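Board notes (copied after class):
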Amino acid sequence: MLRIDRDARGIVTLTLDRPEAKNALSAALVARLTEALAALADDATVRAVVLTGAGEVFCAGADIGEMRAAGAATPEHNEADSRRFARMLECIERQPQPTVAVVNGGAFGGAVGLVAACDIALAATGARFALSEVRLGLVPAMISPYVIRAIGTREARRWFLTGEAMDAATALRIGLVHETADVASLGAAADGIFGALLAGAPGAQAEIKRLVRHATGRSDAGDDAMLADTARWIARVRADAEAREGLTAFLERRKPAWTRGP
């Protein structure tokens, strides 16, 4: 479910490899990705970590079936599940090597958090993005700090509240991604970024990542507290009747009860 490839330059590509499930972030995949990032963090030969998806979709977000099951589980199990997802996002952002999201296709819900947590993001011009949690009766709790830092509070409110899909040009305009290219040129665009990264000193790059966090007033303690808060937030919301209805409606391929109109 996670393919790991390394080239001679020290570029490691982590490919979400559940194309039959649109690379949805199951608990097993979240654990595997977290483990892989931790292992790479201590490897001095790794110069950059790339995150992409197999097939035509980058990632469909969290596994909906597992989300519904977690919401119906005990509060302790529900919150522990949320914490694992939040910890994965924190691992991406705190990775000492530069991280690059290469968004080859659609990115929905939690997948937008993956993109925002990476240092640099490239997207195929045909990619679409949606912070679609609200349409399931959920909130983008755990990804919210990363997305808000990427696109700002004003833009976040619009996309969080509506759940609308946006195209790659819009994602570029609001700062979710740094560059776009057609699918055929996406690899070349990524290689250009890799060349620039490889020209920098790896120790300095790790220091720069820590410096940016410090210069923006963040600390490990503060980030850990936010991680815990957002995990509790989504655990509470997805246990509510509204979320249960939204997730069930999605799996049953029908509109949720709160929807009005045709």
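Comment from the instructor: The chain is about 50% helix and 15% strand. The radius of gyration is 18 Å.
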